[in-house]
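agent: user wants the structure for Serine/threonine protein kinase from Halobellus ruber. delegating to structure tool.
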Amino acid sequence: MGGSITLSQVQDKYPRHNLKTKLDSGGQKEVFKGEFDGEDIVLKTIIAEDWEATKRAELEIRAMKEIDSDIMVGLRQDFQDVIDDHEVFVMVEEFVPGGTLQDQLQEEGPSVELAARVGRDVLTVLQEFNEQDFVHRDIKPKNIMIQPDGQVRLLDVGIVRSIGEADTDLTPTDRPAAPGTPGFRAPEQMMNDKERQDTRTDIFSLGITMFATMTGVHPFDVDGMDLQEAIQAGTHRNLSDHFPNPDADGLQELEWYVHKMIETKMHRRFLTPEMALDELERVMEEIA
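agent: tool returned. relaying C-alpha cells verbatim.
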C-alpha cells in the first residue's frame, strides 16, 4: 500500500465533490475542502488500517449523528470505500467559515465577553454529549470556530469516548495512549484513566480555554513547572491577577467559577454542563 491519501486521488474518486485543496493531514486522516450540491463542504478520509482506527472512525460518525445541536459541525454524508488499495471511511461535513478561537485570540487579544459566549455555547453542546454518554476529550481554542456572524461552533470529535463501551484507546501495539492535547488534557486524561473520564473532563478543558480567552495566558503556565506538572499538581495562576482592578464588580465570582472548572480533583468541578451553564449565567449577571 502507498502512504497518505492525496488530493488528486480524492478528486478522481469523487468528482462531484469538486475538491480544491487539502486543509489538514494527521495520523490516518486527510481533510479536503470542496463544494457539493452548491454548498461548501469538507471531505475527510480515514484509513481503516486496524481495529483501533476502524472503531475510532465508527464512533466519530456515530457521535456526529447522535449529537443534535447547531453548535456541532453538521455531517452531510458518510460511507466506506477503497482508495489506492486503502479501505477508508469517508465523511462529508459542512464547511464552517471564519477562524478558530485560537486565531481570534492572536488577532484581537483576550476578552471576557468572548470567553463567556464560548463558555455558554460549548456548555450547551456538552449537555448533548453528556445526555448521549459521550466525552469530547479535545476541547481547546483550535477546535472552536468563530463564524463571521459570531456564532460559536465545535469541531473535531475524532477522539470522542463513549462511556461504558469497550476501550478504543489502545495503540496498535496494545500500549496505553493518553488521548487529548497536551496542556488541555485533564489529569485523568494524562493518567489515561479511561474509567474516570466523563463530562467533567470536558469541563476542565473548557475551563482552561475560558481562562486563556479572558487573560491571554494559560492558567497552568507557572514559573518552575511545565504545563503537565502544574496540571497534575493543581498549581495555577489566579484569574484576578490578570485584571487591572482585582476588586472590580463580579471578578471574584468569575475567578471562583473558572477556578472550579479547572480543579485537579474531579469531584470539586461542576458535576454537569447544566450546572456549569447555570452558574455562568449567574456570574455574568454579577459582572453586568
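agent: one observation worth passing along. Residues 58 and 89 are 8 Å apart (CA to CA).
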